[in-house]
């Protein structure tokens, strides 16, 4: 199922904060927190940024698994290319 | 007979490419640094902290790779005890490392990472812990959150 652009942005920033280069982690985490705060404001602050992150955790795990599978496919494809 | 000019593209070892170099597990590397620090009581603490921070970051990376692999293979939720054990270990080591770095200093590690990057890595581990093992939202909260990403306000 297609994800909303807001959700996609949160999942991407979350992933970057865990798997990005170490020198990008502070910036990635700040971007993630900003996106979560915006979402919390959209709810009229009825939920906190962390409650949003907690609710999205299962979807984030699926997102991580998809990333792993797509990177494995890329690695396999590059290994099959001639002169590699 | 003159020796041939070394080729810039030649691998350093004939039997290993860069990507096949033997890897040292991060926990073994940490024990080496700890041993050096114990042998050299005069080793400046900021240097020891920087070395331990580099190794801790490697350990976190290994943990994240394993976690992702387990999620991709559908095995993650079947072995949460092991996941929780290693996650808590990284969190407790990271807390000690950050406290030491803040109180005793850390040698220059840029551009590899800053103290803020270490803090962010630590915070992301804590987030994982609370998301996986912490208290869950109420149904009402989840309904509001679901609405946020379906074009509804609540």
Give descriptors for this structure.
heterodimer; A: 84 residues; mainly alpha; 0% strand; elongated; B: 154 residues; 5 helices; globular
Model description:
The complex is a heterodimer of chains A (84) and B (154). With 84 residues, chain A is mainly alpha-helical. Chain A has helices at 5-19, 25-42, 49-80. The relative contact order of chain A is 0.12. The mean pLDDT of chain A is 91. Chain B has helices at 26-39, 45-72, 80-104, 115-133, 139-148. The radius of gyration of chain B is 22 Å and the shape is globular. Chain B starts with 25 loop residues before the first helix and ends in a 6-residue tail after the last helix. In chain B, 23% of the residues are buried. The mean pLDDT of chain B is 85. Chain A binds chain B through residues 3-4, 6-7, 17-19, 22-26, 28-30, 39, 42-44, 46-47, 50-57, 60-62, 64-65, 67-69, 72, and chain B through 57, 64, 67-69, 71-72, 74, 76, 110-114, 116-117, 119-121, 123-124, 127-128, 130-132, 134, 136-137, 141-142, 144-151, 153-154.
What's the short version?
The complex is a heterodimer of chains A (84) and B (154). Chain A is built from three helices and no strands.
The ordered string of helix (H) and strand (E) elements of chain B is HHHHH
Largest sheet geometry of chain A: none
Anisotropy-based shape of chain A: elongated
Mean pLDDT of chain B: 85
Q: What is the multimeric organization of the chains shown?
A: heterodimer
Give start-end ranges of low-pLDDT stretches of chain B. Answer: none
Sketch the topology of chain A as an H/E string, one letter per element: HHH
- What would the principal axes of the Cα set say about the shape of chain B? globular
Secondary-structure-based class of chain A equals mainly alpha
Could you tell me the strand content of chain A as a percent range? under 5%
Helix content of chain A: over 70%
Strand content of chain B: under 5%
Distance between the terminal alpha carbons of chain B, to the nearest Å? 82 Å
Q: Can you count the beta strands of chain B?
A: 0
């Amino acid at each position: 199922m297609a994800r909303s652009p807001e959700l996609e942005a949160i999942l991407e920033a979350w992933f970057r904060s865990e798997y990005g280069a170490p020198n990008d982690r502070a910036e990635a985490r700040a971007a993630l927190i900003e996106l979560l705060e915006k979402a919390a404001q959209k709810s009229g602050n009825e939920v906190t940024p962390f409650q949003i992150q907690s609710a999205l955790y299962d979807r984030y795990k699926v997102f991580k698994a998809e990333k792993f599978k797509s990177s494995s496919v890329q690695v396999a494809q590059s290994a099959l290319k001639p002169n590699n | 007979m003159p020796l041939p000019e070394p080729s810039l593209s030649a691998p350093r070892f004939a039997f290993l490419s860069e990507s096949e170099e033997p890897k040292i597990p991060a926990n073994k590397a940490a024990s080496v640094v700890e041993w050096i620090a114990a042998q050299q009581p005069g080793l400046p603490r900021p240097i020891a902290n920087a070395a331990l921070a580099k190794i801790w970051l490697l350990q976190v990376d290994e943990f994240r790779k394993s976690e992702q692999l387990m999620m991709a293979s559908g095995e993650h939720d079947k072995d949460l005890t092991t996941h929780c054990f290693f996650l808590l270990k990284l969190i407790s080591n990271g807390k000690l490392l950050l406290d030491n770095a803040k109180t005793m200093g850390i040698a220059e590690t840029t551009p590899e990472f800053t103290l803020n990057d270490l803090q962010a890595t630590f915070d992301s581990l804590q987030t994982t812990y609370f998301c996986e093992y912490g208290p869950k939202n109420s149904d009402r909260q989840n309904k509001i959150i679901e609405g946020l990403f379906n074009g509804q306000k609540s």
